[in-house]
C-alpha cells in the first residue's frame, strides 16, 4: 500500500516516529508521501527521508492558510533549489471553512492558480486540499488545465467528484471513512482506478481526536473493499497501481 498524503514530520510523531514508520511497514505500507508546508518542515522531512530512502517521499508547498503571494513566490524558489528531493506540489487549494470573506477567498484562489501553473510547469503531481470548497477547487483545476491531480480528503459532493474523475483526477481516501458518510459515498461511486489511499496522519484517523498514523491506510482499504463488495487485495492492488502511476514510482 502507498500512503499518498500525510505529515510524517509532525511534532506528534517526534517521540515515536521510527515505531510509527515500522508499524506502517509491518501492515504492508511500501511508500509514504509526506507533505511539508514550510521550510523547517521540509528540511525535517528531508532528514527523515535520508533515514528511509525509497520508503519516505515528499511533496512541498507553503501552508495554504498563508495568503501572501510574495511568500508563495519565495517558497517556489526554495522548492526549485531542492527540486531533486521533491516529487510533488502540495497540499495547496481552497479552504472556505477557514476563509469566509470574499477578499480572502479571492486571494486564496489566486495563490491556488499560481501553484497549479507551477506544478504544470514542473510536470509534477499536485495534492489538493479543499474544505467546503470542493466544487470550486474542481472548477479551478479544470480551467487552469491541471494535469496530475490528487484531491485529498475531498469533502464535496460525489457529483463534483465525478466531474473530477472525468478530468482524470485521483481521489485519496483517509481512514476517517469509517466515520464519514460522505467518504463512504465517494468510495461507493468513484471508480477504483481513480482511488488512492492516504492517512493524512496525524489527523483524519478512524477515531476522532486520536492521533492517526500511516498504518491506518489499511483501514481505508478494508472499508473501501466492504463498500464495493470486492476483496481487500483488489483495493490494495488498484490503489497501489494508481499511486505508482500518478507519482511515477517504479
Ligand atoms: Zn494534510
Q: Explain this structure to me?
A:
It is a single chain. The protein has 250 residues and is of the alpha/beta class. The chain has a single domain (2-245), classed as TIM Barrel, CATH 3.20.20. 46% of the residues lie in helices and 16% in strands. The protein is built from 9 helices and 8 strands. It has helices at 17-27, 39-51, 69-81, 102-122, 134-143, 158-166, 181-189, 217-228, 232-247, and strands at residues 2-6, 31-36, 56-60, 88-95, 126-131, 149-152, 170-173, 195-197. The chain has an 8-stranded parallel β-sheet with strand order 1-2-3-4-5-6-7-8, sandwiched between helices. Helix 6 (158-166) links the parallel strand 6 and strand 7. The longest helix is centred in the middle third of the chain and has 21 residues, at 102-122. The chain starts with a strand and ends with a helix. Zinc ion binds next to loops.
Topology summary:
Layout: E1 2-6, H1 17-27, E2 31-36, H2 39-51, E3 56-60, H3 69-81, E4 88-95, H4 102-122, E5 126-131, H5 134-143, E6 149-152, H6 158-166, E7 170-173, H7 181-189, E8 195-197, H8 217-228, H9 232-247
Parallel strand pairs: 1-2, 2-3, 3-4, 4-5, 5-6, 6-7, 7-8
Helix pairs in contact: 5-6, 8-9
Amino acid at each position: 500500500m502507498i500512503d499518498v498524503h500525510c505529515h510524517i514530520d509532525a511534532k506528534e510523531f517526534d517521540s515515536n516516529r521510527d515505531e510509527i514508520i515500522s508499524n506502517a511497514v509491518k501492515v504492508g505500507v511500501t511508500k509514504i508521501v509526506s507533505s511539508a508546508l514550510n521550510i523547517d518542515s521540509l528540511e525535517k522531512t528531508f532528514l527523515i527521508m535520508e533515514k528511509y530512502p525509497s520508503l519516505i517521499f515528499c511533496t512541498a508547498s507553503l501552508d495554504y492558510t498563508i495568503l501572501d503571494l510574495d511568500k508563495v513566490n519565495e517558497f517556489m524558489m526554495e522548492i526549485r533549489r531542492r527540486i531533486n528531493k521533491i516529487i510533488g506540489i502540495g497540499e495547496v487549494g481552497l479552504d472556505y471553512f477557514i476563509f469566509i470573506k470574499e477578499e480572502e477567498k479571492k486571494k486564496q484562489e489566486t495563490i491556488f492558480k499560481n501553484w497549479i501553473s507551477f506544478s504544470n510547469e514542473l510536470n509534477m503531481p499536485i495534492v489538493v486540499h479543499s474544505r467546503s470548497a470542493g466544487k470550486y477547487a474542481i472548477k479551478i483545476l479544470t480551467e487552469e488545465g491541471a494535469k496530475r491531480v490528487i484531491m485529498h480528503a475531498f469533502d464535496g459532493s460525489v457529483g463534483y467528484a465525478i466531474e473530477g474523475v472525468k478530468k482524470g483526477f485521483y481521489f485519496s481516501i483517509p481512514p476517517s471513512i469509517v466515520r464519514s458518510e460522505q467518504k463512504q459515498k465517494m468510495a461507493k461511486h468513484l471508480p477504483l482506478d481513480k482511488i488512492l489511499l492516504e492517512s493524512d496522519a496525524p489527523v483524519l484517523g478512524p477515531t476522532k481526536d486520536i492521533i492517526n498514523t500511516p498504518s491506518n491506510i489499511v483501514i481505508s482499504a478494508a472499508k473501501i473493499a466492504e463498500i464495493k463488495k470486492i476483496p481487500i487485495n483488489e483495493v490494495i492492488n488498484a490503489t497501489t497501481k494508481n499511486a505508482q502511476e500518478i507519482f511515477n514510482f517504479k
